């Protein structure tokens, strides 16, 4: 199970689609990550997701005894993750499922040419404690930056607040 894209600088688009067909398309345009082509995305969340995308490691395939349950669960709840380069070539595609029982691993299923692999894997990111599912989400509002004015303090000469007159 080779899930990681080794070169972070090659990644220029990540598309996350959940089982309810909600989608977050994250694109890097000249160093600025955007969500759904509308808003700048939160840098710390992009950084966390890129850490997963580039350092994702398989601990092991899901044990045979758990296989059917994990697949059943993944069919109903997953976030499909597609990672593209700047020429729109698909670098990796996989399903992100629920955490393992101990909460330390995350069930994931690789895709190759649109076909899902026969076995899900238990994955983790070395040095990151806990499961990874929360890093893969489709809510546009959560991805949106919280920055209102992107100026440094020294760039602002004056600030005026106007209250419309009560009519």
- From the spread of the alpha carbons, the general shape counts as elongated
**Average pLDDT score:** 91
Number of strands: 10
H/E element order = EEEEHEHEEEEEH
* Poorly predicted sequence stretches spanning 5 or more consecutive residues: none
Strand content: 25-35%
CA radius of gyration is 19 Å
Through-space gap between termini: 67 Å
Summarize the structure.
The chain contains three helices and ten strands, in the order ββββαβαβββββα. The chain has 167 residues and is α+β, with helices and mostly antiparallel strands. The N and C termini lie far apart (67 Å).
Question: Could you walk me through the main structural features you see in this protein, from its secondary elements to its overall organization?
Answer:
This protein is α+β, with helices and mostly antiparallel strands and 167 residues long. Helices cover 18% and strands 32% of the residues. The chain is built from three helices and ten strands. The chain has helices at residues 43-55, 64-76, 140-143; strands at residues 13-18, 23-29, 32-35, 39-40, 57-61, 79-84, 90-99, 106-112, 115-116, 121-124. Strands 1, 2, 3, 4, 5, 6, 7, 8, 9 and 10 form a ten-stranded antiparallel β-sheet that branches. The chain starts with 12 loop residues before the first strand and ends in a 24-residue tail after the last helix.
């Amino acid at each position: 199970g080779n899930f990681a894209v080794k070169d972070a600088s090659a990644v220029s688009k990540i598309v996350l689609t959940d089982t309810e067909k909600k989608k977050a398309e994250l694109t890097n345009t000249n160093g600025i990550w955007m969500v759904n082509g509308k808003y700048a995305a939160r840098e710390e969340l992009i950084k966390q997701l890129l850490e997963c995308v580039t350092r994702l490691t398989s601990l092991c395939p899901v044990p045979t005894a758990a296989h059917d349950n994990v697949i059943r669960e993944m069919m109903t709840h997953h976030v499909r993750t597609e990672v593209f380069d700047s020429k729109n070539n698909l670098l990796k595609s996989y399903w992100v499922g629920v955490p393992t029982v101990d909460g330390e691993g995350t069930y994931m299923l690789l895709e190759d040419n649109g076909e899902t692999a026969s076995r899900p894997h238990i994955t983790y990111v070395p040095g990151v404690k806990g499961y990874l599912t929360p890093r893969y989400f489709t809510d546009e509002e959560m991805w949106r930056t919280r920055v209102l004015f992107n100026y440094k303090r020294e760039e602002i000469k004056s600030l005026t607040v106007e209250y419309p007159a009560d009519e």
